[in-house]
Amino acid sequence: YGFYTGFDSDNSSGDFSEANHKVAEMLDLDPHQSNRTGKHNGETEIQENGIKRHRTSLPAPMFSRSDFSVWSILKKCIGLELSKITMPIVFNEPLSFLQRITEYMEHIYLINKACSHADPLERMQAVAAFAVSAVASQWERTGKPFNPLLGETYELTREDLGFRFISEQVSHHPPISAFYSEGLNKDFIFHGSIYPKLKFWGKSIEAEPRGTITLELLKYNEAYTWTNPTCCVHNVIIGKLWLEQYGTVEIVNHSTGDKCVLNFKPCGLFGKELHRVEGYIQDKNRKKLCMIYGKWTECLWCTDPTTYETYKKNEKRGGEQKKLKPSEDVIKSENDEADDMPEVQDTVQFIPGSKLLWRINCRPPNSSQMYNFTSFAVSLNELEKGMEAILAPTDCRLRPDIRNMENGNMDVASKEKERLEEKQRAARKERAKDEVEWHTRWFHQGTNPYTGTSDWLYSGGYFDRNFSDCPDIY
Prior knowledge:
The chain is α+β, with helices and mostly antiparallel strands.
């Protein structure tokens, strides 16, 4: 979840910080687009219906990364563990990884839909769509989220969307982020922990997001668990960075025994399978109840197995004779490198009679100037008036490096990032000298009650707002 996660390390020397000072000129941005209300410093306006408006733009547009190469950094680090590499801040986006995890909640309406269905099959369809939607915000997001400091937290309460969310960085080596969310109507609990396992393959970086995701629908006494697909970013040496998700995701309903198997397809030689997701839902007797197909960057549909198989047979029968229209062809120049991004022009081929499960949200018109953020992501680091007084002192919104990057102060952001990493190193050395163990504040290590595997569980109490014993990490 965010391919660079785990690169920054408090063991690294910061040798590459000089790259941060070689940033290109900022893009022009219409001052009238700075945010929807025209207010600044994170202030928001109350609409007539009492719902808070959230900002629709960042305070400053992103810097160009065109003058920088990831490879220029990585080639100096051959033989080192990826977790020991510090990337220059120009490759970051102004969000912490804890905030990026919160983007799971962008399509919370799918959880609400699951809660509203009496039919367990329809509930599983909604949960499957939610699992796919959780990775959709990564599309074209090749920026690196900031590595959370040990003890860092992030909270988000959205009364308009009906949930509250809390996360904590519970381990630094290995990097582990734990999160817990609950419906304000006490209708669901959503929790998990993510431990990204990174591999560098020369031309690409692969992040396998280990850790269990659990969704509990309280009304039905149901629990679903799954693990996210593998994320890979290509062309880290030369060319345009591009991202794909691949691997098999199995969603298990531990109450009914139903299972959804989703295959995130690797792009393939000519890019034919890029972004495609195919799968099925089966009952406890392994009978297929429905088929699911679509793209994680676009939409997801379902249909009955008979219709799906008939369509596939017809497609295969006419496949050799069928000449693709230009819009369905893979547009690829003869001069392109073999590992360049395949530009697939077609959308999902609709099978008549299918039901739409999910469609991606449109991004704001200025998204390309804002790290390709969704509207939801744009609002995550907003520091509203009066919020600082009630937030935990460890909250991401209070991180000076992220705040300065968001405001376009790249030099200050780079220096603050180095200062925070040095502070974290010094604190760890001090604990080692005094033989003091680090204690997490809001989560504890335990066993997932549904899978029996090791997990980080919410200890409770965060929203009581007793932050007197929170560590000083900033």
